[in-house]
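Example complex used in Figure S2.
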Amino acid sequence: MSKDFNEQFKSLQAELHASSKRDGAYDRMWKRVSTAIEDTDNVVSPATTLDYLQWLFFESISTPITIGAAMLVIVFGGFMTTVNAAQSLPGEALYSVKLATEKAQLKLSSLEHKAVLHTEFAGRRLEEASALNVSTDPAKTAQIKRTLDAYRSEVTQAGEDVRSLLNEKSTETMQVASAVDRKISVLNAEIDTRVQESDTNTLDIEDAKKATQAVSSSVVNVMMEEHETTSSNKLSDDIEKSFNTKLSDVQKKQSMVLGRLARIDEVVTVNKDLHIGGIVELRFAANETSVLMRSASDFAIAGGYRAAFDDLKVVDERLSEIANRIVAMEIVTTEFFANQKIEKLAEPVETEGQINSLRSDSTATSTISQ
Amino acid sequence: MLNEKFILFRIHRFRDKSAYAKLYERYHKNILDFASFKMPRKQDAEEVASEVFLRGWEYATSNRVDNIKALFYRIARNLIADFYRQRKVEDSLDELADVAADQEIEERIDLSESANKLIAKIRALKGDMSEVCVMHYINELSVKEIADILDKSPNNIRVILHRAKKALNK
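Predicted assembly (540 residues):
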């Protein structure tokens, strides 16, 4: 049966059909069916070309057009929603869409890309916190806190991803670590600006800053470990680039700190009633960080990047401490001018000289706050 | 296929009997063959096949149908199951087929000896094998078409066909 299997079936099929035809089975069946169908009402005219065209339109043209249009609406609508969601802030209706889009991006990304994405999302959280800070929403403090918590989580996750890359011996560890490190440096600088701008959530911002610095150290450690275990010119270039970026960051920070101290000193010199101590010590401490920066550069030139980064870390911490003390000085200065203004407003303004004096005070206040 | 869709449109929209006649012409042999393997007598098979087209008409004039071939086979399977249920056999269709195979089935004097032997072998196949075998080798349905009719995966059908072929070759 194996050889002519299909042939036997073909032959059987032919025999069955021939037999049914011979004994009139097909005719009997059709008679039964047609009689029953004829008994039903509604006899219609045979199909015309117009009928066919009408049907063809509904089946082949109208339905695909409808489906196409619906898909266009869905895709375009979805795109517009995503675009609008990208601008949304915590507490707004589309904010959950924004977070869902980010989650989807992370799900679809490789570990190498995830680490960088987390820093990007951390940047977004900082921008959101900043936007919330100027809003008039009474619940803004709680929202800023939640946003900064989310920032910390994103930054920490970026650090963990970089560490995972090292553990998995990924060939792109150094490249990713260096990209994350650059982003973290930017975030660090942004947080410093937020500290000066913010009037609420100062403790949350401090926590965010600490988390950023911790991740920065962790990423640098990863870079060091990778550099120490793998000797390659490319890795040395990456680490050198990273060191130079960090050095440039702390130099900028030092200039900023010295500039702010200079302005406070200027104001104190002009206003004899304003007593602020410690300016000279802070200026000295800020200048002193240059010694450590030079030492870090020397280590880097000699290839001792670990020691070089350690020095830069100390510099950064010292400058942050100085910056915090400067903030306290600026608050005292602002309060001083505010009190003076109130006192002068309480007195009747008599001469043009007094008005000019008030104007010059307000200019000094704005200079400090800048 | 487009032509068949147009026929179905005519039947559904205008209750067009001439359009239904075309469908009948296309499928009546297959349905009768299918029923012949399941029913004990030739007259029973004829009755079932006629009933399939009557019920098909009723359904197609009141509902939109995408796959009329699958509809005819499904109606046929249900009618065959009903036939055996009426004989007080309370079992599933697959088992009913086995029962049918075990029953006294008249030999077709109008067919050759080799044809009768092959029919007996096919009827003796267990479970879905007989049904799938008829659909594929006699009715010349594709694996996908059988899978659609029986609500099984194409792979499942291929396995059944393989077993059926093995059993028939013994």
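The first helix of chain B runs from residue 2 to 14. The mean pLDDT of chain B is 83.
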